[in-house]
Amino acid sequence: MTTKVIFAGTPDFAATALHAIAAAGFDVVLVLTQPDRPKGRGMKLQASPVKQAAQALGLPLAQPASLRNAEAAALLAAQQADVMVVAAYGLLLPAEILAIPRRGCLNIHASLLPRWRGAAPIQRAIAAGDAETGVCIMQMDAGLDTGAIVSTHRYAIQPTDTAQTVHDALAQIGARAIVADLQQLDNLQPTPQPQTGITYAHKLSKAEAQIDWHQPASVIERQIRAFNPVPGAWTTWQQQPLKIWQAAVVNQHGAAGTVLAGEAGQWIVACGEQALSLQQVQAAGGKAMPVAAFVAGKPIAPGSVLAQPEPQA
Predict the structure, then answer these.
(1) Which residue range or ranges hold the Formyl transferase C-terminal domain (predicted)?
(2) CB 227 within 8 A of CB 144
(3) What residues form the annotated binding site for (6S)-5,6,7,8-tetrahydrofolate?
(4) pTM exceeds 0.90 for this model
(5) CA–CA dist 5, 25 (Å, integer)
(6) For the residues 176-181, what does the mean pLDDT come to?
(7) CA 285, CA 307: separation in Å to the nearest integer?
(8) Contact (Cβ atoms closer than 8 angstroms) between residue 116 and residue 200
(9) Measured torsion, CA atoms of residues 285, 286, 287, 289, in degrees rounded to the nearest 10
(10) Cα distance between residue 37 and residue 51, in whole Å
């Protein structure tokens, strides 16, 4: 008998897994995703990537605003599913929902648990300078990413990796991993997570994406990659926000935030330790462009200073 699967997810990361599960021949009896949200300048309602995938695959779809009610529980119970697969769904699953599928609920989590439990594991791993990250398939329980581990799949973070490139790699890894585990569903042997090495990946904020030039250049460079593409590391230049999409550490020194070179296609800014050579930037209302092109249009005076974040009260 084909395994009956309920799938719950919302962004691209989850849609990749949904496509893989469907392609592997599992019986996806219901797809859950968050309600359509207003987006863009016109604030038009936009379907999530998982909704778009479900519609393209012709799968049954529901978009409850919450799973903490009898109506949602009845909907899920009626599916008589063997298992629920959850990937970046964005809604909490209460204990009564977790108990509905015969074989429980499996979560695709983008970190090597118990490191980086929570909302932004990819970004926090890059910002912290981790050498590797990965995907864990986890048997869900009532805690925040605390369930027993079904399988672990590692990925070596490259020096040029951004949150986007790691996301794309882990989405593929997670899709392959969940299919493999579903194919062995009755033989899985979850292992409790270690009680050491626990860290939390708190949700990103736009405020923390503002660059503090007093930080070492290596720290800022990781911050730039971790916040690419969202929310985008930024600074203030000539009273206007400036996003920095790519930079490299160089062995130069000066007062933090001071421009050391701003000509011949270069824009080098001193940091708390060493300096950063900016490589791709984006002015407010403009497009991202190489620094050589930016500097050609707006010469940068050496000795000028980029703004620092306001001190916290």
Answers:
(1) 203-298
(2) no
(3) 111-114
(4) yes
(5) 11
(6) 98
(7) 19
(8) yes
(9) -140
(10) 12
The average pLDDT across 286-293 equals 93
Closest CA to 11 of 100, 122, 95: 122
Rounded CA gap, 219 and 21, in Å? Answer: 38
**Environment class of residue 94 by beta-carbon count within 10 Å: exposed (0-12), middle (13-18) or buried (19+)?**
middle
- How is residue 310 written in tokens? 């306001």
Place of tokens 């996806």: 28
Residues placed in the known binding site: 111-114
Residue 116 in tokens: 């980086």
- Tokens 């219901």 -> residue: 30
108/224 Cα distance (integer angstroms): 26
Q: Helix (H, G, I), strand (E, B), or coil: what is residue 32?
A: strand
Contact between 91 and 69 under an 8 Å Cβ cutoff? The reply is no
The string of DSSP letters for 180-248 reads HHHHTGGG---BPPPSSS--EEPPP-TGGGB--TTSBHHHHHHHHHHTTTTT--EEEETTEEEEEEEEE
Residue 114 CA to chain centroid, in angstroms? 17
